[in-house]
Specification:
The complex is a heterodimer of chains A (about 180) and B (about 140). With about 180 residues, chain A is an alpha+beta fold. Chain A contains five helices and seven strands, in the order E-H-E-E-H-E-H-E-H-E-E-H. Chain B has a domain at about 30-95. Helices cover about 40% and strands about 5% of the residues of chain B. Chain B is built from five helices and two strands. Chain B has a two-stranded antiparallel sheet with strand order 1-2. Classes of the chains: A alpha+beta (about 180), B mainly alpha (about 140).
Chain lengths: ~180, ~140
Amino acid sequence: MTVTIRRLEECDEVKSFDCGDEALNNYLRLHAWTNQQKISIGVTYVALDESAPRLVLGYFTLATSSVPRDKLPRKYVRGLPAYDLPLILLARLAVDKRFVNRGLGHALISEAFKITLHVADEVGCRCMITDAYPEKAGWYARYGFIPLEVTDETSPRKMFLDVRTLRRASAAESSA
Amino acid sequence: MPAKIKPRSASLPGATAKTPAPRKAKFQADLAQSEDGMVRVLKAQLQLTSNADFLSDALALFRWAVTERKRGRRIFSESLSGERNILIFPRLERVAPDVTLPRIDIRWTGKELESLAMLVSEQPAEPTETLIRAMRQ
C-alpha cells in the first residue's frame, strides 16, 4: 500500500468512508468540501492509496485560530508578547476502520505537524490545539500533546502541543 | 437569363474541405553566450539531441514544480546524510499559497485558558520519540 496525502478534491470518494464515528463520517461526507472550498472554515487533507487514488482512507482537518490576549489570565500575560496568541487547530482526524493498524493515523498526524510547521514558518503560530475524545487522549499524548483541562470521562478534551517542541522534533530528526 | 455565380472555392480545381493540421508553435529565444553554453552542456548530460526535446523536458519539470508550489509543498534536494536544501525560486514563490488555512473561533473555559497561558509562558517540552519519528515520516 503506497499512501499519498493531499488536499481534499471534489471528486474524491467519501461516501463509503466509515471510521465508526458518525460525527466524523458525516463531516467528511457532508461538510468537508463545502467548508474547504465555499465557506473557508477548514482545510481537509485526505490519505489515498495509489491503487485507488480517489478512495479516502483517512483524513484530518486544519484551521487557524487565535486567543485574544485579554482573555488570558493576567498573571501570565506579562510574560507574553502584546498580541493575540495564534494557533493551529487540528479539528478532526479519522481513519476508515477497514484500514486501521496500518500506520495511517501516524502518517496523517505527521503531515499535520509538517503543515503546522510550514504555517508557523510562513505566517507565525504558537501552538497546535486538538479536541481529543477521552479514549484517544493517550494516542495524542504519545506525540507530546498535553491536556489543558480534564473534566469528565466522556467529553472531548482540548490538548496542546507547542510549536517550539515541533521545531525541536524536526531539528532532532534532521540531525539524526 | 440571370448570370449564375459559382462559389469561389468551387471554381478552384481539386479543392476539398480538409481540416487544417494543428499548427506547431515556434519557440525562439535570444540566449547569452553563457546560457547557450549551459543549454549545450545540459543537452549533452541529458543525452538530448534536439532543442525541441530539451524544451519539452524542461517544460515538464517546470510544470511539476509549479504544481507542487501551488499545493503549498516545498521542493528540496536531500543528500545521502539527510541534509536538505530547499529550492527558493522567486517566480515559483509567486504561485505558492500565502496562507493555506482558514480561521475559526474556539470556545475556551477559564481553566483551559489558564493552562494554555501557563504552557506558552514556560519552556517548551522536549519532543517525544513518537513525535520525532513522525517528523521523519
